[in-house]
């Protein structure tokens, strides 16, 4: 036995993966918008102690979305290489 053969995902599998990624991205973006609103509310109220932690959490959300995008690009490359 030589192990598993790496095959590209089928069209249905790719559609499921992309749909799941889209839902996750939408959740992260909505959370970032809520975080921006809450941070601006606190900052305009005179408390600037939460600005940098909120920026760090928002940057983490951006990093998650960029990572998902890179995975999607890699998924598309393996599909084109397999065709």
Summarize the structure in words.
The chain is an all-alpha fold and 83 residues long. Helices cover 80% and strands 0% of the residues. The protein is elongated, with a radius of gyration of 19 Å. Helix 1 (11-44) runs antiparallel to helix 2.
Question: Beta-strand level of the residues, as a percent range?
Answer: under 5%
Poorly predicted runs are none
- Decide which structural class fits the backbone: mainly alpha
Query: What's the order of the H and E elements?
Result: HH
Figure out the total of helices: 2
**Proportion in helices:** over 70%
Major beta-sheet overview: none
Radius of gyration: 19 Å
End-to-end CA span: 25 Å
Layout of helices and strands, plus pairs?
Layout: H1 11-44, H2 51-82
């Amino acid at each position: 036995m030589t192990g598993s053969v790496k095959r590209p995902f089928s069209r249905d599998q790719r559609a499921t993966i992309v749909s799941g990624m889209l839902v996750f991205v939408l959740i992260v973006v909505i959370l970032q918008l809520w975080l921006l609103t809450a941070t601006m509310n606190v900052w305009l109220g005179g408390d600037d102690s939460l600005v940098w932690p909120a920026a760090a959490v928002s940057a983490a959300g951006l990093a998650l979305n960029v990572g998902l995008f890179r995975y999607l690009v890699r998924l598309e490359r393996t599909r084109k290489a397999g065709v």
